[in-house]
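Running co-folding for farnesyl diphosphate.
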Amino acid sequence: MSRLSQAKVPEHVAIIMDGNGRWAQGQGQARVYGHQSGAQRVRDVVEAAGNAGVKVLTLYAFSEENWRRPAEEVNALFSLLVSYLKQEIDQLHENKVRLRSIGFTDKLPPDCQEWLKLVEARTQNNDGLQLVLALSYSGRSDLVRAMQRMAAAVKEGLIAPEDIQEETVSNYLSTQGLPDPDLLIRTSGEQRLSNFLLWEMAYTEFYFTRVHWPEFSPEHLKEALREYADRDRRFGAVRMDKPVC
Ligand code: FPP
């Protein structure tokens, strides 16, 4: 593959890592086996994204709706997350990755919260890839919380209603300070947003692949980045190098 010019590399890639369960069932295995294999892909894809020049990688690891799954599966997912953090802390730090989490992480099991805090603290000054894990995340709930906080700030006289602009809303969300995603990848053939980064994805390019997450390799990521590089993003405007009429 020819190297993409840095100008065409998306600054922020968001991924809905879907299809772990179906992939495992297709192999005659339990769903948890799919999540274990999926966690391996996280390692590979984080490294590949950093190497490709992506600045921010946001992974939808657990949605608020995922709490409705059987306790056994939920527990397995959080223990996989803790194993990932324990095993990767040194490597992430060495690769200058900075970890951040978004979502209602106070609902996570205590050991998960502790490990997240530890890795976030250890990597906070790194200037490489920013890895954002969306955990107990819901785009709508994040917006509701932002609205509650803005309303409280208005009530306290800290801001006036007319001062609330798009930037203000962005600053009250858990993604505060991050650029909006340029590219969303969803694996496993499903084509929906599933409550992920609703505000932030207003102008995001979508890339859907039938590949299930446990089989999504660095080569598949490169393919998505290549397709993104060929897209023509106009943000609602028209290209001025072509006649309008
Ligand atoms: C969706 O597949 C995937 C999830 C709900 C969890 C994603 C978690 C991981 C990839 C592993 C742990 C994460 C980290 C960051 C180490 P699904 O189970 O909904 O698949 P299905 O649609 O085929 O049932």
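Result summary
The first helix runs from residue 20 to 26.
The beta strands are 12-16, 56-63, 98-102, 130-137, 183-186, 205-208.
Job closed.
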